[in-house]
Structures are given as C-alpha cells and as structure tokens.
C-alpha cells in the first residue's frame, strides 16, 4: 500500500464557478491509503500506480472500444447494404426514403440518452449496457427480413432507442476512472478501435453480401443477420466483464480501489457520487457551457456521420466501381485512427485542449473543401483523409474538454448525455443535407458541413476565452486571500 494522506472533501451541487458548498454538500469519507512499509520509495509507488492503471486500461478500453465499434457498424452499415441490393429491393432511391431511414434512428437516440445516464447507477452499468447491446443486436438481425422501407424505418427507430444509453454511459464511466489529463488518451484509445473496425466494416459487409442466395436471403439481408448475431454474442460476453464505477467495482481489491479513488479526489474532488435529484438535473441543465459543448460536438459529428453513411456512395460518384469504392473506404479510417491518437497524446501531454481541437477542426474544414470543390478524384479522395481524421479527432477532444471542466458525478451524467444527444443531432443533419438529388458531388451538404466547422471554431474561441478569464479571476482572488488556495481551475 502507498503513501498516506488524509483528506476529507466536500462537494456541493453548484456549478464549477461556485464551489462553496452552500447547497447541502455531500461529505466524502476519509480516503486514506496506508503505506505497506514506512520506507516505501517513490519508485515503488510509481510502479504500483503503473500496474493498477495498466490493469484498468486493459479491463476497460479494449472491450468498450469493441462494443462501440459494433454500435457504429450497426448504425452505419446501411450504405453498404444499399449498394448491395437493398436500395433496389426496398426502393430506397425514391424521393428522400434513404435519408428518412437513416435519420429516424437519431430521434429516440437523442431523447433517451439523458434518462439512461441519470438512471445508470440505479440499474447497474453491466445490466443496462449488456441489455442495450443484446437488444440492438436483435433489432439489427430483424432488419434482414423487412418487406418494405417503412418496416426498415421502424427497425431503425428501435435501433436508436436501444443504442441511446450506450455511448454516453461509456464516456461517463471512463471519465470517472481517470485524472483530467489522462482522459483524452483513454477516450481516443477506445474510439480508435471503433475507427479501425469501422474502416473495414464496408469491406466486411461486402464480403458477407456475397452469400446472396443462401437460405433464400439476399446479400444485404445476410449483412444484417451476421452482424446482428455477432453483436448479440458480444453483448452476452460483455455482461461478465463490463466495468462498474470506481467506487463499486469488483475487479480491484480494497487497497487498489482506495488508491484509484484517492487519485481522483486529489485531482478534482469528486471521487464518490453525489445524489441525483430532478432539481439538481435541472440546475445542471441551466449551465450554458453544456449547450455550447453540445453544439460543438454536433458540428464535429456532421462530417463524421456524413463520411460514415455516404463514403462508399461518394467514392462511387468519383468514378470508381463498387469493389474499388469499398476498398478505398478503409485507408481514410486507418489514417484517422493514427491521427486521433497522436493528437490525444499531445493534448494530454501538454495539458491543452482548445489548441489541438482548433487544429483538427481546421483539418476537417480543409478536407471537405478539397473533397467538395476539387476536380481530380485523387485530390477529392485525399480530402476525405483530412476530413475524416479531423472530425474523428474532434469527438474525443470535445468530450475530454467538457469532462475536464466538470465537478460531481451528477453533473457529469447530465453533461455527457446532453452533449452526446446534440452530437446525435449532427447525425440527423448529416443524413438530411446530403440529399439524393445532389449526387454525386453533394455540394449543398459539403457547404453546410464547412459552415459548421467555422461555427465550431467560433464557439471554441468563446468558451476558451471565458475559461481563461475565470482562471485569471480565481488566481487574482487567491493572491489577495490569506490562504491563497484555488480549488478548481478550468482546463484550456
């Protein structure tokens, strides 16, 4: 056991600007971590910390990344299924049917994220998340047998309902386990697993579609059957291994649990949960910064969803045949995975969020300009690399930026759900601005996406400037007070 410190913290329900504990603060119990030996060296403690954090990483990140990659595959495989025969069989090219089928998924997805996150502790993370995975896998399999586009739309609504609580819960859980400047690498780690998997999902789906005619099913039906069954299997496996929150996990012993909680307590003072009430939820929702974060994520998800839903269609519109379009859809995701992790490492290392977010937003903007207005297919394809890498990196970056500037579990639950809900709104926008009548170049959708990146940069500047002034005011106040203590500073 490690260095002994005695710390008792109080955490009120106020926002970060008011941490005086006026509203019936929750007392955090003593978080002592005793020494295993009085002469334990710093190197021993560092080795202990590395071992525990490596164990946590291996327990959480690969599994969560795999499950989220299944979620992304199941929500975006419509594009491949469409060009594998579903479009003709269900007449999806008529009017705005494909956009409608793609869009309706996000309505329950947006509406149910907040209630799911609020009740996550009540139901238990393993119970709720494994149920979600198995349920949406069953819906995915059922999509193989729909007789018309209307039934397909109904299945997409159910898919959105069951996936709603999954992603915000993952972000919520991960951000409770790590210190503020360890978060983005972890978010990027599980997210890049999904990026890499998603990059090859189109090729996988096309391979599955070659089963056309077996058991009387079309190729696109086999895509849904096999990928849905795979999701169900992993959902059952996940029930045994999904992590709980740090304070009630079962894979660490009591000594290790105390150590993890102590790290969080020293970093931001919210290692243990506070009670969630309707008034506290409403109070958190009144914080304007939550909505700014959400709009920023919405702007970042528009290009990400546009590429996810339409990349094979866009590539085929550049003149490549179906096989080449599917093969060429993978390299931009490989490049994006590498870019996401590099930027996440830099952001954590330099303890800076806004600057690296701005750089990645500019990458997205430049990429979509090249893809939309370039004349040569090679240059337009190169634009997809930049656009995909920038938008994919902004998503964990914005989530890390917001989580770094939140105190209390209740606010973390509310903030994460609202931000990701607005990110889902980006999916609705992406599926409606890339219209069938604009094929193959989708110029109106490209212009709208570029405009959203400009908006993201403006909001990022406003938020960062606000945090800078808040930090400056806190430092000035601390310099003029006897104790000179600053409880909380925003991460810029």
TrEMBL record:
Keywords: Membrane, Transmembrane, Transmembrane helix, Transport. GO terms for cellular component: membrane. The chain crosses the membrane at residues 60-78, 98-120, 127-145, 151-175, 187-208, 220-242, 290-318, 324-347, 354-373, 379-401, 413-434, 446-469. Residues 60-473 form the Major facilitator superfamily (MFS) profile domain. It is found in: Membrane. Pfam families: MFS_1. Residues 1-14 have a biased composition (Polar residues). It is a multi-pass membrane protein. Residues 1-26 are annotated as: Disordered. One of its GO terms (molecular function) is transmembrane transporter activity. Its main location: membrane. InterPro entries: MFS, MFS_dom, MFS_trans_sf. This is Major facilitator superfamily domain-containing protein.
